[in-house]
Write a structure and sequence with these properties.
Layout lengths: L2 H13 L5 E3 L9 E5 H7 L6 E6 L2 E11 L10 E2 L2 H7 L8 E6 L6 H11 L3 E8 L2 E8 L1
Parallel strand pairs: 2-4
Antiparallel strand pairs: 1-4, 2-5, 3-4, 6-8, 7-8
Amino acid sequence: MSHNEMRSISKEKILKSWWNINGEWLSDPEGMEILLGQDIATPLGLATGSTLALERNGIVMDLEVKGIIESTGGEEDGYIIMPLLVSQKLLDKEGKVSSIEIRALCNDCPVSEMSRQIEEILPNVLIMMHRQQPRRSLLLRHG
């Protein structure tokens, strides 16, 4: 595990400070662990410590539920969050990403300018601005 991978996991708590997690945040960038949104966990009867088996194209992974994101009324209620390396392996997309989230840790950060600069570097990436007070963020999706 690289220093940057560990740092990105620990920063997630800061970037998603409004999330209340029942259980723990993900801690291992290569771990077979997940966070679930409330809208996924409840209907499936999953709780912290449960195992969720995910399968795609013959690749099966048993993932431990480390935490449940309490309902926010937002998109995260339907999230399944896992370490990047694990999701890349499950989806057979090693070395590739489909979205990038950038969150500015200040109220007056130039999010529009950041968006413009990213569009210049990554012209095929769809950029959507999200606002979560007191922070602003960009969600980048690559088709």
